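step=encode ok
step=design start
structure_in=
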């Protein structure tokens, strides 16, 4: 009796994935038929470019996802109960503030942070606390700090605005969701079922580690593949020249770079060098907005987060991140 209940969500997810792929292919043909001069390249060339971009995003993300899964297993299975918790402050706001700095000790990009965050949830950390870590860690970590400094130095306050902005946005989201009457409702039913499976897993640490490794890969890999495919497809559906045309406008340039950040889905460890190529065309505030939005709510990251959080939760996170990034970018443009 129980098997159909488990299989139904998986079948529905497969149908949704196939439907999204069909819609994207249809969109390519529709755009090519209605506006053949919109893109300089032919449809087969754009399709090949989209596949290349999707594969590159996937390959770039895989090592960090694997590292995140391993760290998740270490936290869940090998670290004794109470070791991490006893170092945490008791006050909720202080715990969130500390967890938002945990990325300094776990320097993986946003792809690896999702399985690691799942491990924290399975360990018993509260949802708002884990959300604070998940949002802050892709920005507040040593590798991102170094690469951003290598790209921009301290010019126009881009590095400082990125670090302070990422930390502030993460704690704002943590505080907002801490006000939720039922934080566990922010999680998907499937993830709650996974938590129950992991808790009840018999055997020693080696067996439990292997079981959780399989569970995490089965949960994260389909989302990573779908997110990478979407990122590649959207990049060939949206003409980048349209975004570049508004780069000098203080407000529209921020909007354009926010849209670009959500589309290109570049790892936060190297996105500063990609943004550097736009520095001569776009305003400093728009560069900051790009560096804030990309690691937090790009297409690939949202697909990964959907393995754990409900669609409604992700929609709220996107709204907070985008509005906050726009406000921070506008402030940088005023001060620069």
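sequence_out=
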């Amino acid at each position: 009796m129980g098997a159909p209940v488990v299989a139904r969500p998986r079948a529905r997810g497969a149908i949704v994935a196939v439907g999204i792929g069909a819609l994207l292919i249809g969109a390519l043909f529709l755009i090519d038929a209605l506006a053949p001069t919109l893109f300089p390249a032919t449809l087969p060339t754009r399709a090949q470019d989209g596949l290349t971009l999707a594969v590159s995003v996937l390959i770039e993300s895989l090592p960090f996802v694997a590292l995140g899964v391993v760290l998740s297993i270490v936290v869940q299975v090998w670290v004794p109960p109470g070791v991490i918790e006893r170092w945490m402050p008791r006050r909720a706001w202080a715990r969130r503030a500390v967890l938002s700095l945990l990325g300094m000790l776990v320097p993986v990009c946003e792809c690896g942070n999702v399985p690691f965050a799942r491990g924290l949830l399975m360990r018993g950390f509260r949802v708002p606390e884990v959300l604070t870590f998940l949002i802050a860690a892709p920005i507040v970590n040593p590798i991102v700090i170094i690469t951003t400094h290598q790209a921009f130095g301290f010019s126009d306050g881009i590095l400082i605005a990125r670090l302070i902005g990422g930390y502030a946005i993460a704690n704002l989201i943590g505080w907002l969701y801490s006000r939720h009457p039922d934080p566990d409702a922010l999680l998907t039913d499937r993830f709650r079922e996974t938590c129950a499976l992991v808790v009840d897993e018999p055997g020693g640490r080696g067996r439990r580690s292997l079981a959780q490794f399989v569970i995490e890969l089965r949960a994260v890999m389909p989302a990573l593949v779908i997110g990478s495919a979407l990122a590649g497809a959207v990049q060939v559906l949206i003409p980048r020249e349209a975004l570049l045309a508004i780069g000098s406008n203080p407000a529209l340039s921020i909007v354009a770079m926010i849209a670009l950040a959500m589309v290109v889905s570049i790892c936060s460890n190297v996105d500063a060098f990609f943004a550097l190529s736009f520095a001569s065309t776009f305003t400093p505030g728009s560069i900051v907005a790009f560096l804030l939005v990309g690691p937090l709510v790009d297409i690939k990251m949202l697909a990964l987060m959907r393995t754990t959080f409900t669609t409604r939760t992700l929609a709220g996170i996107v709204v907070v991140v985008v509005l906050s990034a726009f406000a921070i970018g506008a402030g940088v443009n005023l001060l620069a």
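step=design ok
step=annotate ok -> Confidence is low (pLDDT under 50) at residues 1-9.
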